[in-house]
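Hi everyone, sorry if this is the wrong subforum. Our group has a chain we'd like a structural model of before ordering constructs, and none of us has done structure prediction before. Sequence below.
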Amino acid sequence: MIKEERNRKQSLALVLLVIATLCTVFLMTRDVQAAKAGFKTINGKTYYITASGAKQKGWLTLKGKKYYFNKKTGVQLKGWQKDSKGRNIRYFTKGKGVMATGFLKSGTVTRYFRPSNGKLVRGWLTLKGKKYYFTSGTGAMVKGWQTTAKKEKRYFKSNGQMLTGWFTDSKGYTRYFNTSTGIMYTGLKTVDGNIYYFSKTSGVRYQKGFGKVGSKRYYFSTTDGKAQTGWLSLDGNSYYFGTTGVMYVNTTASIGGKTYAFDSNGVASEKQDSGKDDNDSSITFTWYDEKRGRNFTIMKELKSHPGVADGTKSDLDILAAVCEAEAGDQGIAGMKAVALCLLNRTLDKEFPSSVRYVLYQGTTFPQYSVVTNNQLLKRLNGQFIDRASAYEAAQQALDSFNAYVLNGTPRTVSGIKAKDFNYKYFMMTSAFWKQPLNFKKVVYETYKDHTFFVDWV
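Answer:
Right subforum, don't worry. Here is the predicted structure as tokens:
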């Protein structure tokens, strides 16, 4: 009995010893394997050994940094990674093989790699509102002057940022670069509502007073280069410059209710009022359109109607007044069509470039009867039948016209078939058929009581 008990205890002790030995071997094996995890160089090639003792293949992220290992051999990639076409797409440092992100300078060349995937950037890049450009081949960041295929210029600073807006260099020369494209301005340009002239070769802003662009004369401020508009008094003489900065020369013009003669140098002298206007008429006056470079005969109602000559009434106000006076009984579409006819004329060199002068253009009689029959005057004095509809029609016409001028968007009017409303004339349909027109050639369309047509043929 005692002997059997002793044998049982010896057997139990042996079992416990075996278990302890196995545990020790397991733990030692695990520690040995754990010790192998990490980078290891074999025959000049670098690998990453995982905790299981296997070679890492593909992507590996450690402490926020990315590495890449060949999917077949497990060899760590260092230097350039190429795509299927042999182009460089990523860069891994030659030392530790870390994937490059952000800006990386190598010698005199700077490149940029996207932080999200490490890919090399080629072409345009915008960072924190600043634009950069990288060549299509090597991905090198461009610096200094760059010329496009259209011979336009941009400038990139030493840090690669593209210049935009105003820039004055160390020599005091001022240039302007388009705020979206970075293209340097040359020639006559408008910036923030002001007109400037920039050298066509260097882009430097002109600010030396009187200057000539083509056949037209201007005056550019000697301090900030802005083109003069309106009156200028200089050295005892008076000059006048239109809204586009062009100086009045060799002409007579009515300004602020007074008539002035401008000599070949642009010097103004006031003409005495003889009771008639400068074209010797009691019902019209001559207005010089600087954009067209010619005179137009204008009905004197332009001066007497409230807010028209002095600009108090906007183009919207004037269009609302005339479209209701002419077509107030034809709905918003009919009134919009009338307003568009006037606006379309401003694109034709045979008519004034300003819609208010188009409206008041005339000789013995006005082109629009409402100018002299008090119907226009009533609206200008606020006596509308349906003010809201008149202004809605005028605004629609302005929006449609501006979209056409800026983007080529077709001018459309509800109820009118024309895909692009390019009509410049309208009249009552009954009167239209009495006109000396070639009705086989004239392009026209009738809407309610009005017929609209493109030109006299």
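For your construct planning: The CA atoms of residues 45 and 440 lie 87 Å apart. Helices lie at 2-36, 301-304, 315-327, 331-345, 355-360, 375-380, 387-407, 429-432.
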